[in-house]
Amino acid sequence: VQLQASGGGLVQAGGSLRLSCAASGRTFSGYSMAWFRQAPGKEREFVAAIRWGNSNPYYTDSVKGRFTISRDNAKNTVYLQMSSLTAEDTAVYYCAAGRPILTTIRRSSAYDYWGQGTQVTVSS
């Protein structure tokens, strides 16, 4: 089972990036997909999640209105469209797959599979 994240890079403040995470090795039918991030010296934090049926996504407050999570179940791929980026968004971004219940969807421990991470650096 592999999650392959891509799309990171260096962008100026105010710019945009789209991250992708392709799953392979098994079907993720019924799985929720999520993005977490970890900045240097900080703990990994929840960014966004979307359930299998593409119902209402979940976001951490700091990215609401700027980031959009989406998924293409036919392609086993989840996306994170990021706009109006700031230096505070600089981090390694990880995608994850799991079957969290509603109350745990923001917890990293609720996810079983993780990608390798992709670096996002926002220059101010």
Q: What amount of the residues lies in strands? A: over 45%
Number of contiguous helices? 0
Rough outline = globular
Q: Span from first to last CA?
A: 37 Å
The run of helices and strands is EEEEEEEEEEE
Are there runs of 5+ residues with pLDDT below 50, and where?
Answer: none
Tell me the total number of β-strands. 11
Instruction: Bin the helical content.
Output: under 10%
Cα Rg: 13 Å
Structural class: mainly beta
Give the biggest beta sheet.
Answer: 7 strands, mixed
Q: Summarize model confidence as the mean pLDDT.
A: 95
Describe this structure in words.
The chain is an all-beta fold. It contains no helices and eleven strands. The strands form two sheets. Strands 2, 4, 5, 6, 9, 10 and 11 form a seven-stranded mixed beta sheet that branches. The relative contact order is 0.32. The model has no long low-confidence stretch (mean pLDDT 95).
Furnish the topology, listing elements before pairings:
Layout: E1 2-6, E2 9-12, E3 17-24, E4 32-38, E5 45-50, E6 58-59, E7 67-72, E8 77-82, E9 91-98, E10 111-114, E11 118-123
Parallel strand pairs: 2-11
Antiparallel strand pairs: 1-3, 3-8, 4-5, 4-9, 5-6, 7-8, 9-10, 9-11
Compact description:
The chain has 124 residues and is an all-beta fold.
Key phrases:
124 residues, 0% helix, globular, mainly beta, four-stranded antiparallel sheet
